[in-house]
Structures are given as structure tokens and as C-alpha cells.
Amino acid sequence: MAGSAKGDDESLVTDINVTPLVDIMLCLLVIFMVTTTYVVADSIKIDLPNAASGETTTPSTIAIMFTKERKLFMNGEETTEPALRGKVREEVAKNKDTQAIIGADKVVSHGEVMHLIDIVKIEGITKFAINIESEE
To answer: In 10 A of CB 116, how many CB atoms?
Structure first.
């Protein structure tokens, strides 16, 4: 056997050691998994061209904010929970693809944020995002 303690140098190495190959493949797999899950959320600023035949579209995103004083805002206007439900219902009736951006102060509890998510989901919004501030 090759590499034995007896010092038998006349036998040939006939086995392939796949341990280094497995190590390299696992390392490449980890690198691939890390790089494919990296999502860049920064936007690119561009100047859009003008067109005479362009039409305006109604915005399909609503912003819901909840302050530390427990005040609820929708698109910058203060509202109540029942009024919020009605406004969200109206927006969904206008456009089925309406999205919501939900923002809350740091001191607001997780349960209160989940309650806002439940409200928008019950009223028909299926796409929503949680608003955060970058740590740059």
C-alpha cells in the first residue's frame, strides 16, 4: 500500500484521492450561494427621454407610516385604522396590483407592525415592503 509505514516503495498508487476535489467544490458552492443571494436595492438615476404620446399612470404604491406617538399616516395624511381600511380597499378597487410600503418607528412593537401588515393583506394587497433606513 502506498505511503505505508513499512516503506514499501515498489507498489503503485492506484487510488484517486477526491478529498481535495470535494473541498474545492464545497468552497465554490458556498461562494455561489453567498453571491446569488446578494440583492442590490440601490437605484440608478437616469434621464428619461420625452415622448408626445406618453400617458400618465396612476400610482400603484401606498405608503403607510406608524409613529412612536401611535399616529397612523397613509400617503402623508393622518388617518385612523377604519379609514385606512377604507382607503386601502378603494386603492385596490382602482388597481389590483397596488403595493404597500409599511414604515414604523423603532420603538413600535413587532405586533403592531404585524397588525398593519394584516390590515393591508385582508383588504386585498398582496405585495408589500417594510421601509427601512440604510446604515451607511
So the answer is: 22
Query: Residue 51, CB half-sphere, CA atoms under 13 Å: how many?
Result: 6
Cα dihedral sign, 80-81-86-87? positive
The average pLDDT across 30-50 equals 63
The confidence band for 135, taking pLDDT boundaries of 50, 70 and 90, is: low
Cite the DSSP H helix spans in the chain: 19-36, 81-94, 110-122
Tens-digit pLDDT profile for residues 86-97: 999 998 888 888
Q: 63: exposed, middle or buried (C-beta count within 10 Å: 0-12, 13-18, 19+)? A: middle
Topology of the domain covering 61-130: Nucleotidyltransferase; domain 5 (3.30.420)
Instruction: Report the helix count and the strand count for the chain, using DSSP H and E.
Output: 3, 5
Task: Determine contact, residues 123/88, Cβ cutoff 8 Å.
Answer: yes
Task: Name the pTM for this structure.
Answer: 0.54
In this structure, the chain runs to a length of: 136
